[in-house]
């Protein structure tokens, strides 16, 4: 499943691609956390984003199914916030639009018939969570969080220069 086709959320976008191995989760935390901090995201927001992203990545490893070789963590940063998409090409979520005859629209995570601790954690720590899952086309979890950029945030300087 691709993450393209949606309106771009931010001025800076980067993509991390990982194999489906347990070690990918702490590596994701290190790389994503360091990058967010260096661009000026405050420590509390970094903590919240990493917690939510950890749950989404753990779900790929746990629920993605046999076809999943790897997954992508696509992060967009802009004036109003941060968006992190965790995308895999697995079998999709049971009980979600995967079971429908035709692909369904993106659903708010709160509407999933089956929802455990991980999605609840994501919803608690970021402002908006959706899970888009379709039969044979994988799953994309999209998490958005408002960021209050400090005046001296490196991202501001980058945007001013571009
Ligand atoms: N990447 C994914 N691929 C397939 N199914 C997924 C994926 N992410 C979430 N799901 C589905 O959504 C459900 C809810 O996920 P959630 O993280 O809330 O709970 P959980 O993983 O079952 O349990 P917990 O996170 O509490 O250990 C999962 O049980 C699974 O069916
Ligand atoms: Mg989970």
SSE arrangement:
Elements: E1 12-19, H1 24-39, H2 43-63, E2 70-77, E3 81-88, E4 107-108, H3 117-125, E5 128-134, E6 138-146, H4 154-161
Helix pairs in contact: 1-2, 2-3
The protein binds adenosine-5'-triphosphate (ATP) and magnesium ion.
Residues 55, 59-60, 62-64, 88, 90, 92-94, 114-119, 139 line the site of adenosine-5'-triphosphate (ATP).
Number of E-type strands: 6
Q: Report the mean per-residue pLDDT as an integer.
A: 83
Instruction: Report the radius of gyration as a whole number of Å.
Output: 16 Å
List the ligand species: adenosine-5'-triphosphate, magnesium ion
Beta percentage is: 25-35%
Shape type = elongated
What is the CATH-assigned architecture of the domain at 12-86 and 115-129 and 143-161?
A: 2-Layer Sandwich
- Give, in spatial order, the strands making up the sheet with the most strands: 1-2-3-6-5-4
Question: Helical element count?
Answer: 4
Cα distance, first to last residue?
31 Å
Query: Could you list the spans in which at least 5 consecutive residues all have pLDDT below 50?
Result: 2-10, 96-105
CATH topology label of the domain at 12-86 and 115-129 and 143-161 = Heat Shock Protein 90
Range of helix content? 25-40%
């Amino acid at each position: 499943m691709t993450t393209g086709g949606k309106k771009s959320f931010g001025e800076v976008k980067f993509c991390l691609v990982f194999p489906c191995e347990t070690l990918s989760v702490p590596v994701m935390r290190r790389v994503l956390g360091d990058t967010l901090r260096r661009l000026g995201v405050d420590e509390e927001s970094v903590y919240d984003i990493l917690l939510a992203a950890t749950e989404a990545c753990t779900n790929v490893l746990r629920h993605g199914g046999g076809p999943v070789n790897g997954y992508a963590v696509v992060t967009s940063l802009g004036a109003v916030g941060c968006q992190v998409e965790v995308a895999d090409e697995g079998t999709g979520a049971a009980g979600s639009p995967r079971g429908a005859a035709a692909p369904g629209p993106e659903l708010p995570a709160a509407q999933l018939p089956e929802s455990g601790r991980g999605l609840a954690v994501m919803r608690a720590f970021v402002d908006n969570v959706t899970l888009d899952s379709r039969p044979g086309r994988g799953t994309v979890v999209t998490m958005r969080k408002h960021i209050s950029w400090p005046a001296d945030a490196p991202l501001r300087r980058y945007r001013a220069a571009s």
